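TOKENISE THE FOLD
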Amino acid sequence: MDLQLGGKTVLVTGAGQGLGRAIAEAFAGEGSNVAFHYYSSAEGAEEAAKASAAAGVKAISVSADLRSGDAVRSAVDAVEAEIGPIDILINNAAATQSKPFLQTTEDDWAPQIEVTVAGTLRVTQAVAAQMAANGGGSIVNIMGDSGRVGESHLLVTATTRSTTLGLTKSLAKELARYKIRANAVSIGLIQTASLDAHIGSADDEKMKRILSAYPLRRLGLPADITPTVLLLASPLSSWTTGQVISVDGGYAMP
């Protein structure tokens, strides 16, 4: 199926590693021009952008600290200047931490709030302004299921992730007049290099307990998530907005 993504310009945040990189590479595979955003994963973003460009699309790596409005605006302007106006925004970047809530401090909360909440708002506002001026676009927000159902030891992460629900639905209602769609993909645990940092080290017994919460009895892979993201971003989903789609192995069922 042709998803009609060829020639579209896509910005993926947090695309230097893990799921973000996989999503950005999937868009490049569909013929999209892709900006791989990163903050600390420069090597991965630059490597992925170089490989994508070699495959025949326009691709760049772009650095920005999402805690800085000036940095975000500069990055968005750089994407437009180098590969074209942004048609699709994938908000993937987030800060997470696994820690009992009563042991956390405000220093633990701050980066999660500044990156996952305020950082996403900064990027979305900068890109949406560009989209509105250029006739529309599509925004897909990635969130964790902890933000929908809650999760022990991920209370602060779940709180910040839950804001994605309100953001997505509000964007869909407010920006439809500009032909901008907004949807979200809510995911379960994904096997990436950062998995241990997210859940803490897991021995066989702990992993059995984790898997018991998934009816399909396995964790997700990046390749399980990318098709849904691509479809929601695609013109084929032009009548879909304000929706939260779960791709989570059955972990949480509405």
